[in-house]
Amino acid sequence: MTATIGKPAPSFSAKAVVNGGEIVSDFSLSRYLDEKYVVLFFYPKDFTFVCPSELHAFQAALSEFESRNTAVVACSTDTEQSHWAWLQVPKAQGGIQGVTYPVVADTNKTISAAYGVLTGEYEFDEDDAGRIALAATAEELIAYRGLFLIDKKGVVRHFLINDLPLGRNVDEVLRMVDALQFFEEHGEVCPANWSRGKAGMKATREGVAEYLAAN
Hints:
The protein is of the alpha+beta class.
C-alpha cells in the first residue's frame, strides 16, 4: 500500500521514542483514529544538520498544532536507540533535547517505503511465512523530507516531499491544517494564498466569479 491523496494512510506498528525519552515498542497512528488529525513528517537522519532545525521548529509550534487537535509525529530510518541518544543532546550542541512528540524508528525502512519517501532503488522480498522485508541494496536508504496531513478518519489529505537539502516551512503546515478544517466546517474551498481568518470560496461558477472580482 502506498500513501495516496484521498486514501487511508498506510498503517504501521513500530518502536518509537515518546515524551522525550520513553521507548515504546508498538507505536501506531491508530491511537489517533477518530480523535485527532495527524501531521506525520519524515526526516533523513539523526545527528545531522537541517534535521534538528525542523524537529525544533515543529516542537516550537506544538501548542499551535495541539490547539487545532492535531498530533505531530516524526519518523526516520534510524533506530530507537539513536533517537533516544539524540534526544539527550542539548539544542545548543546540535541535539533535539526538548522534543516531546513521538519520534518513530523505521529501522527496517518499510514505513518510508510505504509512504513513498525512501531514497534509492529497492525491492521487497517475501519469505515463506509471508513476512515482507526490503531486499539488500548497495546504497544507503534514508527518507526524503516527506510530510503527510492525515484527517481524523485516517485519510491522507495533503502531502509534500522535499529533497534532502530543503527544509520545510512549519507555518505552511499549520496553514494546510487550517484549510482542511475550514473546508470540513464550512464546506467552502480555500483559494490561493488563503490563510486562517480569510473568507473561503463557494465551489460554484458564481462563487469563483465573486471571489475573483473581489480579489
